[in-house]
Design goal:
Layout (H helix, E strand, L loop, with lengths): L2 H26 L16 E3 L2 E2 L4 H10 L3 E3 L5 E16 L5 E16 L13 E13 L4 H31 L2
Parallel strand pairs: 1-3, 2-4
Antiparallel strand pairs: 4-5, 5-6
Helix pairs in contact: 2-3
Length: about 180
């Protein structure tokens, strides 16, 4: 075996040994990677109602939330969502033509306390508001149709992301 072949052989063994030691160390300390937060063990969140805007993105949000919450008259909360979307041109070229579009999505969420049989009617009307934001960026193409398709796909992904974050936040708020 030549000296170059021997050094490659040893370097490959060192890399494999380092990876093996790293994997054993991480597994011994109890580390488990988290790829997605799911609330499947808790089941759907019980709400009196969940109101989303009657817009295209509101429908995308409602679709992403489907099966994640359950309408129940005896639930303690109802939720209303206001959805805002802004698009702005960025990265202008020498001719002043925008090369990118920045998309910002904002959910303004109001969580309202409902009266339950063991509470007084005075507790009705207490509310808590919070804001969730998501931003995307896309390159502008020469085709308006391609831009519109890309913008719709980004909106769908943004609504899925916001739905995940909304459910996580609601699950924290409802349990308090």
């Amino acid at each position: 075996m030549s000296p170059d072949g021997l050094s490659i052989w040893w370097s490959n063994r060192v890399i494999v040994l380092a990876l093996l030691v790293s994997a054993l160390t991480l597994s011994a300390c109890g580390f488990r990677p988290i790829h997605k937060v799911t609330l499947a063990a808790d089941g759907p969140i019980a709400l009196v109602a969940l109101a989303v805007p009657d817009t295209q993105n509101g429908q995308l949000l409602a679709t992403a939330l489907r099966g994640r919450w359950q309408a129940r008259a005896d639930a303690a909360f109802d939720v209303s969502v206001v959805l805002e979307e802004t698009a702005r041109n960025t990265q202008l070229d020498a001719r002043g033509v925008a090369a990118r579009i920045e998309l910002d999505y904002v959910l303004r969420v109001t969580l309202r306390m409902r009266a339950t049989p063991d509470e007084s009617a005075a507790s009705v009307g207490q509310s808590k508001s919070f804001v969730l934001r998501h931003s995307e960026s896309m390159a502008r193409s020469d085709s308006g149709a391609a831009d519109l398709t890309q913008q719709r796909n980004l909106a769908r992904l943004a609504m899925q992301n916001l739905a995940e974050r909304l459910i996580l936040r609601l699950s924290q708020e409802v349990k308090r």
